[in-house]
Input
Amino acid sequence: MTVTLTPDQQDVVTELMNLGVGRAADAFSRLVGDEVLLSVPDVLFCSQEQAQTHLQATDSGQMAGVMQTFSGFATGTAALIFPGPRSMELVRLVVGDDLPAEDISELEQETLAELGNIILNHCLATIGNTLQAEVRASLPETYRGLWPEMFEAFHRITPVPPVPAGADQEDTLVMLVQIDFTLRSRNLRGYLAFLIDMNAAQIFLSLIDRYLENLSG
Amino acid sequence: MGLCVLIVDDSRVARMSLRRQLLEIEPDASIVEAGSYDEALTQIETHTPALALIDFNMPGHDGLELARVLKDSLPALRMALVTANIQDAVSRRATDLGMAFIAKPASVAQLQQFVTGAGQ
Output
C-alpha cells in the first residue's frame, strides 16, 4: 500500500509543520527564557519500522518524552522527545533555580508533561487553525527509556483509525515529521515527532487539497 | 483581605507558575487552587473568588464546562481560559461565555490586564 503525496501536497505539510512549530517555539522560548532554534521539518513517509530505525540513528541512550494522541484533521500521536540526562536541566529552566533540588526532582514528570502539553498543543492547534479543522488532543503522558521503549509507548497509545478495506495493517504507512530544536545558549537538543497513519488520512489529504485550492483561488 | 483568585489546572507546575505571576501583580491576593472540575466546585463552597484562571484540557470535565457552571453559581466571577490549545474554535467558545482567553504560557502583562479589568 502506498500513499503518495504530490510535491505540492508535501510542500503544504512542510509549511503547516513550519507554522505549527513556529508558534510552539515561541511558547517554548517564553517558558525557558532562551531563544529556540529550529531545523527545517524533515517529512518522511515510511513504515513504522523505518521510522524507528531513523530515530534511533539520531540519538542513542536514554530518552525522555511527552506524548499526546490527537484526532480531528488527522489521527495520530505527537511527541516531544529529548535526551534523558538533560531533562532535569530543562525542568530547572521552566520552574526556576530558586527551588531546592529535591523539589525540582519531584516536579520533573509534571514539568515535562506541562512543557510537552504547551508545545504540542500550540503546534496542533496552529495546524488545525490553518486547515480550518478542529483537533482534539489527549492529556500528556510522560515516558522514559531507550528508543525501542519510546516506540513501544508510541504504538500502545496511538489510536487505531479505521483502515480502508484492502489495506494491510502490517503495511501501515506513517508520516514522520521530525524537527530538531536547540536552545541558543545551552546546546540542548530535542525532537518533535508526529506519527500519522496515512492509510487513514483521507480527511487530512482533502484538507490539504482545499488549502491548496484556496491558495491558487 | 486581598483579591481572591481561583486557579484551576490539573498540572501542579502550571498552577505554581500562575500563582507566582499573580503574586507578582497582587502581593496580597489570596489564591485558591483546584486540580480538577470537582475540586473547583468544592473550593467555591468555602471561597468566593472574584477572578478565576481556568485550564481547558483536564481529566473529566474540561475548563469550558466548568466555566458554564461557575457562571451560574457566581455571576460576578470574571474568568479567563488559560490554555495552550490556541485553536480559534476554543477561543471563540471562551469568548461566547464571556471569558478572557490567555495563551499558555501566560505573561505577567496579560495577567495584569485581566486582573486590572476585574475592578470594572
Notes: The mean pLDDT of chain B is 94. The beta strands of chain B are 4-8, 30-34, 51-54, 78-83, 100-103. The radius of gyration of chain B is 13 Å. Chain B touches chain A through 22 residues (CB under 8 Å).
